[in-house]
Amino acid sequence: MTPTQRDAASAATETVTVTVDLGDRSYPILVGSGVLAEIGPRLAAVTTTRRAAVVTNTTVGRLYLDGVVASLNAAGFEVVTVAIPDGETHKNLASLATIYDALLGARIDRATPVLALGGGVVGDVTGFAAATLLRGVPFVQIPTTLLAQVDSSVGGKTGINHAAGKNLIGAFYQPRLVLIDLDTLRSLPRRELLAGLAEVIKYGIILAPDLFATIEAQLDRILALDAAVLRPLVARCCALKAEVVRQDERETDYRSILNFGHTVGHAVEALTNYKTYLHGEAVAIGMAFALKFSQLRGHCEDATMHRVIELLRHAGLPVEIPAVLRDADLAPVLGSDKKVAQGRVKFVCIEALGRTRFEYVSAGEIAAAAR
């Protein structure tokens, strides 16, 4: 192996630490390959108790739960495990009750850390359980999907869906630690990987034109899970979100830029009963619509709109609102979005890559533009 090859191999296996700076509630995000096996000593370094609970889903559990439990046991932890069904349709009160029943039945105490091992659904439901059990127990995120690694595991948003809309029940509750093992992405179906890439592309659109250009140039290597490209990409996305969270933890203003593409995306998910589109796919549709909406309102140049939509298409993501939904009345669903205030939606528009603006519009205006 040449020195250059050794340097590349070292870079690919290095663990990067990104800090979410929230004063005495700050926490590290560890990004690397093979770090799942380190959860035992990593957790032992941030807690004095030797009990822990792991919540996963039935799919991820078969792949990674035994290894996580073995690492925790080796570090001296007694472990309680809970599995909920896989899928967005199970991000609900029933799954929450399953977690409550298991952890209360195991008599966990307020010092017992609860670990979320899985994608965004597991992280969101487990985080809400941790926020509310015994008025709050320590929480650790171990995201195993690209979408969860770059988005939902960072920033403390937790919650469940309701029949009236997505994420309408929840809490802001920060984890103590986020452990991202890039090797878990190799078990993802390609569709899940692409759905996560939608959120990566989002960061480039709203915050970092250089990141957007990197995705354009390195898309094939990203999709091939080339660690030399993937590790800095995931770490950069986490750092971008960490900075937004540092500035506006509870989404009183600036953090709302992270909702780019999500207003229509959430409506698409809800109207298809969370069964037709993965979250990232629905967000891709929402981002493409938001670019068109921005262009229609005179904020965004045609070239920017077409450049973004072309990258989404090249990445294999959907960009059109389904005809069956365009013909439906989107307004009631859009109007129930949690970002609605005084009858207006705080809609994220794009002026240029890396430059956003908020438009306060009615659900009817968005629905009309979607037809």
Notes on the structure:
- This protein is α/β, with parallel strands linked by helices.
- The protein has two domains: 13-187, Rossmann fold (3-Layer(aba) Sandwich); 190-224 and 254-370, Up-down Bundle (Dehydroquinate synthase-like, alpha domain), CATH 1.20.1090.
- Helices cover 48% and strands 19% of the residues.
- The chain has 15 helices and twelve strands.
- It has helices at residues 3-13, 39-44, 58-74, 93-105, 120-132, 146-152, 190-206, 209-223, 227-247, 262-271, 279-296, 302-314, 323-326, 331-335, 363-370; strands spanning 16-20, 27-32, 51-57, 78-84, 114-118, 139-143, 157-162, 165-172, 177-181, 340-341, 344-352, 355-361.
- A seven-stranded mixed sheet has the order 1-2-9-6-5-3-4, with helices on both faces.
- Strand 1 (16-20) and strand 2 form a beta hairpin.
- The termini are far apart.
- Mean pLDDT is 93; it is low at 1-11.
List keywords for this structure.
7-stranded mixed sheet, 15 helices, globular, 3-stranded antiparallel sheet, disordered N terminus, 12 strands, Dehydroquinate synthase-like, alpha domain, alpha/beta, 2 domains, Rossmann fold, 371 residues
